[in-house]
Design brief:
Layout: H1 12-37, H2 44-51, H3 55-61, H4 64-77, H5 89-96, H6 100-131, H7 133-159, H8 169-179, H9 182-191, H10 196-209
Length: about 220
């Protein structure tokens, strides 16, 4: 008489945890390699080796262009949660306050660590957009979104009466959007040796320089 063997229980939560850990390792490896070596020279094989998985496992998560976009998204917000930076509690606190100088300090404290995470990936992203048609429009859209995010911060400062009277919301937005791009941060960090504290102080100065006494004639 043959005794039927009991099937081993299927632990769905455990499998899900393992899959999430593998995905995290792959995105972390891709992020590090894109930041260190750029997009063109980073291969799926190199990502697999860094993540200690097979190339097949990497492809199961995403192909190379999508991995770069996942790395960008993670760098912007610091995690993989599907919540935009503008909708996070720290940004909501910035939008809620009506003290322009407090807004400037909050913007700097949020912006500095974000820029430190983001600039190496953005450098790879911009370089990739030059040669990879699949990423060209994604790069343009990322810049449009970054401009919109900056405008939202500037708009909050203006509504609180903190924008310098001679500066319009449009001009302030364009100035900040250009000034705090990855190129400037790369120069300050890599060429001048700035750390997070130094970068935060600089951002505070940049934001405060756009503030001034409230004025009814302030152009909007």
């Amino acid at each position: 008489m043959t005794v039927a063997k009991k099937s081993r229980p299927y632990h769905a939560p455990r499998r899900a945890e393992q899959a999430a850990a593998t995905r995290d390792a792959i995105i972390s490896a891709a992020s590090a390699l894109f930041a260190e070596h750029g997009y063109a020279t980073t291969t799926i094989a190199a990502i697999a080796k860094r993540a200690r998985v097979t190339p097949k496992s990497v492809y199961a998560v995403a192909e190379k262009p999508q991995l770069l976009l996942l790395a960008v998204d993670r760098a912007i917000v610091g995690d993989d949660e599907p919540v935009a930076l503008a909708d996070r509690p720290e940004m909501q606190a910035l939008f809620a306050t009506r003290d322009p100088e407090a807004q400037a300090r909050l913007a700097a404290r949020i912006g500095a660590p974000t820029l430190l995470r983001l600039y190496p990936i953005y450098r790879a992203f911009e370089q990739a957009a030059v040669t990879d048609p699949a990423l060209r429009e994604a790069w343009r859209e990322s810049q449009r979104q970054r401009h919109a995010d900056v405008r939202r911060v500037v708009g909050a400062v203006a509504e609180a009466g903190g924008l310098r009277p001679t500066l319009s919301v449009d001009d302030a937005t364009d100035t900040l959007w250009a000034l705090v791009g990855w190129h400037a941060v790369a120069l300050l960090v890599e060429e001048r040796g700035w750390d997070l504290a130094h970068l935060t102080r600089w951002l505070e100065d940049v934001f405060v320089s756009l503030l001034g006494p409230a004025s009814e004639g302030n152009p909007r």
